[in-house]
Design goal:
2 copies of one chain form a homodimer. Chain A contains 12 helices and 20 strands. The first copy, chain A, is α/β, with parallel strands linked by helices and about 425 residues long. Chains A, B: Homodimer.
C-alpha cells in the first residue's frame, strides 16, 4: 500500500473502485428533483434508481404530481444540499475498510480529538459560544444529548420527588415526548415554565429547557426560572448565522448543538454538548457509554471533513449561502401573507449580527403561522384541505390555531409550499 | 458531474482529492504495531501520526515497551483488521458531501432497505437465524438494541410492579449496568435467572436475557424460565462461525445481532434486531426514534459495503479467516494452561457446524479463566501483578476467582497475553 509516483503523477490503487462507483452514481440524472445514492435500491445490482423529491415521480423524477401533499412538517435541512453539491471535491471522504474498527480511540475515549479541536475553532470563528473551561461530548444529534442532559441533571436521591422538566410555550415537542417516553424514576415532564415562575415547589428540582432561537418561532430566549433548585439546558441547535443574528457568544452551563442545522446533515445523527460542571459531564459520558457507546467513527470522520470545508474562509461561504436562502424564503412567504387577513406570521426584528457585522433581516428556520379567523380554530386542518402538512400547534403546547411550517426543506418543497399558500391567500380575497 | 470516458478509460473528477488523501495516510508505516488514520492528530496539518498498539511507542510504533500492561479486558474485535487490510479495494467506500442529508429515507423510515435485504441474505447464507416473518430494526450496536428491547418488553401499566430483568451467571455485565443506570419505572434488575426458576413471583413479569454463545464462557444456551409472564431477549452477538459451531438457525421471538463481532467494526456502532411481535417492533421503533433518531446514514452505507464483501463466495473467506484466528488462539492458550495447576479454562466441546459442514474444534471469543488455588480468591489481582488486565468475574455475577480474558484483540495484544500467561505457568512450576 505504498503510493507510486510517476513523473509527479499519482497512481491510484485501492481507492479506485470506490471512487468510480461514487462518480457513476453521482452522474445519474434525476432531473433536479431527486437523487440516486450509493445505497439506493437497485445499487446492489449495479443500477441505483432515482429517489424523487415529494411531488415528483418517474424513473428520472421528471414527472410532477399535481395534487400531491406538500410536507412542511419536518425540519429537514435540505436547503443546504446545493452547497455540498458545489463543494463535491473538498467534502468527499474515503472510508477505508479498516478505518477505526476499535471500540475506543487510543486515548480510551469515544471521541476524536481532531474533531473536538475543529468544533472549538468553529465556535471561536462564528462567535456563537464560549467554549473556554467547557468539557465536550458527542451524541447522536441533539436528540440523544437532550435526554443525556436531562438524565444527568436530574435528582437521583429521592424517588418520591423526581425533577420537574419544563419548557416555555411554544416548545420543541421532543422535550415532552422524550421525557414521557423514557418513564424514569428521576424526572417527569411538568409543562410550561411560566406556570412555575412564581410558584416553585420547594421540594422539587427544576430543569428548564431554553431554546434560542426558539423552535418554532425563531425568537432569542433567556432562562425564566432562577434559584438554586433550577438547572438549565440551552438548546442552541439554531444558533447559527443562517437562522439568526448572533448578538454575542452564548456562555451557559450546558449548551447543546447539532450538525443537522449547521451543515444540513441531519441523517448523520451528530451533535455535541458543551458542559461546565465536571460531575454533570461525567454523568453524561456514562450515559453515552451505556446508551450507544459513542458516535460511529465514520460519522466523526465525515463531520471532520465537513467542518474543514465550513472553516475555509472563516465560514463566510456556507453561512452566507445559508442566510441568503433563509432570508429569501422568509421574504417571499412574508410578502404573500402580508395581504392576508386569514393568516399571520410571527414578528421578527432586524438585529445586529456580530458574525456578519451587519444589521440583518430575519431568516428563521420556521414560520409560526396563526389562523386569525374565529372559525379557523384548527389551523392544521385548514392547511391540510389545501394539501399542506404543517406541524400542529398543540404539539408545541400552544393553541391549535398555530401551525409550524418548515422553511428549511428542499427548494422543490418550499416552492410548492409558497404556491399553495399563495392560492389560499388569493382565494380568501374572493 | 458527468464522467467522461477517453478510449475506454475513466477520468476521475471530484473523488480525486479524497482518494489521494486516503491512500497517502494508508501508506504511512507504523511498523505493523499501529496505524495512521485520516483523522489521527496531525491530519489537520497534513501530517497524521501513527497511533500505536498498546505496548508500542515511538513515531513509527517500532519501540516495544517491556513492562507495559496487557489489556485483555475489552472485547475489541481487532483480530479481523488484517482481513479488511487485505480487502482494501472492495471494502472502501466514498461518502459524498451530499450523501443522504435528510432525517429520513424516502420511504419515511430510518433504515436502508438495501442494507436490510443484505442482512437477510447473510442470515440465509450462514444459516444462523431464521428471518422469516420477522421485523428488523437497526440500532447503535447491541448496546442500544438491548435497552430498546428491555424498554419495549417491560410492563407499562403498573408502576408498583416493574418487570424483573434476569440473566444466567456468568452474564454480560452491561445487562445489569444498563438496567440500573436508566432507573426506569418499568423495569429493574433482579439478578440471576436460576433464583427465579421454581420461584416466580405471580405478580411480576420477567424478561430473561439469553446469550448464546455466552459471553464470557462461550457455551450455547437456552432460555431457563417458562410461562406466560416470561419474555426473552436472545443476545446472539457471538452466534457466528468465527466463535461457535452453528448447530441450527436460531428461531426466537427477539434476537439481537451486532456488526462488532461479525466483521470486527465495533467503532461503527451498528447492530440489528429481528422481532416477531408487531407491537414490540413498533415500541422498539419509537424507542429508536426518540433515543437517537436512527443510525447514521454513512454508517449504514459503510456496513452495506462491508456485508457485500462478506457475502462474496458465500461468506467462506471471512468466516474461515475468523475461525482460524480464534481456533489458533484458543489452542495456544489451552496448551500453555494444560500443564497448570493454578489456572483452568472452561470446557468447550467439539461440535458439528451446519455452516462449515465439519466437526469443529472450539474457537471462543473469550477465555473464562479460573484461579484454582485456595488463596487465589481474587483472580483479577493475581493476573494484575503480572501486568495482565482481565475483566473481573464479579462483574459477571460470578465468583472473584474467575476472570474473562479477551481473545479477539489485535495480534500484538494476544501475543503478549500468551507470553505473560506462559511466564505465570512456568513460575508456578518452580
Amino acid at each position: 500500500m505504498i503510493n507510486l509516483y510517476f513523473g509527479g503523477g499519482w497512481e491510484q490503487r485501492w481507492t479506485k473502485l470506490a471512487a468510480e462507483e461514487a462518480e457513476n452514481v453521482a452522474s445519474i440524472s434525476c432531473s433536479g428533483h431527486g437523487r440516486a445514492f450509493l445505497d439506493s435500491l437497485g445499487a446492489g445490482i449495479g443500477k441505483p434508481i432515482c429517489e424523487c423529491n415529494a411531488c415528483f415521480k418517474g424513473s428520472d423524477c421528471a414527472e410532477f404530481v399535481p395534487d400531491c401533499v406538500v410536507d412542511a412538517d419536518s425540519g429537514d435541512p435540505m436547503f443546504l444540499e446545493p452547497f455540498w453539491l458545489k463543494h463535491a471535491a473538498s467534502s468527499a471522504v474515503v472510508v477505508p475498510g479498516w478505518h477505526r474498527m476499535s471500540y475506543e480511540f487510543n486515548d480510551c475515549s469515544l471521541i476524536s480529538k481532531e474533531l473536538k479541536m475543529h468544533i472549538r475553532k468553529l465556535h471561536a470563528t462564528v462567535g456563537n459560544a464560549n467554549t473556554d473551561g467547557r468539557y465536550m461530548i458527542f451524541g447522536a444529534g441533539a436528540t440523544q444529548l437532550l435526554n443525556a442532559a436531562v438524565h444527568s441533571l436530574s435528582s437521583h436521591d429521592d424517588p418520591s420527588s423526581p425533577s420537574r422538566i419544563v419548557a416555555s410555550v411554544p416548545y420543541y415537542p421532543v422535550y415532552r415526548e422524550q421525557t414521557q417516553f423514557f418513564e424514569s424514576n428521576n424526572y417527569k415532564f411538568s409543562g410550561e415554565t411560566s406556570m412555575w415562575k412564581d410558584n416553585m415547589d420547594s421540594l422539587s428540582n427544576y430543569i428548564e429547557f431554553v431554546t434560542s432561537p426558539n423552535n418554532p418561532d425563531g425568537q432569542l430566549k433567556k432562562a425564566v426560572l432562577q434559584g438554586p433548585s433550577v438547572k438549565t439546558i440551552h438548546d442552541l441547535a439554531y444558533f447559527w448565522p443562517h437562522f439568526t443574528p448572533i448578538p454575542a457568544p452564548a456562555d451557559e452551563d450546558l449548551m447543546v448543538f447539532t450538525i443537522s442545522k449547521l451543515t444540513g446533515h441531519a441523517g448523520s445523527r451528530f451533535g455535541w454538548a458543551l458542559i461546565k460542571n465536571e460531575a454533570v459531564y461525567q454523568r453524561m459520558l456514562a450515559y453515552m457509554s451505556l446508551s450507544t457507546h459513542g458516535v460511529p467513527r465514520e460519522t466523526q470522520l465525515r463531520v471532520l471533513k465537513l467542518l474543514k470545508v465550513v472553516l475555509e474562509e472563516k465560514g463566510r461561504e456556507m453561512f452566507e449561502f445559508g442566510y441568503e436562502a433563509m432570508r429569501n424564503r422568509w421574504k417571499k412567504l412574508s410578502k404573500i401573507l402580508s395581504i392576508s387577513k386569514r393568516f399571520s406570521l410571527q414578528d421578527l426584528e432586524h438585529q445586529n449580527c456580530s458574525f456578519s457585522k451587519i444589521f440583518r433581516a430575519p431568516s428563521p428556520a420556521f414560520a409560526w403561522l396563526k389562523c386569525e379567523k374565529e372559525e379557523d380554530k384548527n389551523c392544521f386542518e385548514v392547511l391540510k384541505t389545501s394539501n399542506i402538512i404543517g406541524r400542529e400547534g398543540s404539539l408545541f403546547g400552544a393553541e391549535s390555531r398555530f401551525v409550524r411550517l418548515s422553511l428549511v426543506q428542499s427548494q422543490d418543497d418550499f416552492d410548492l409550499l409558497l404556491q399553495r399558500m399563495e392560492t389560499l391567500v388569493v382565494l380568501e380575497e374572493k
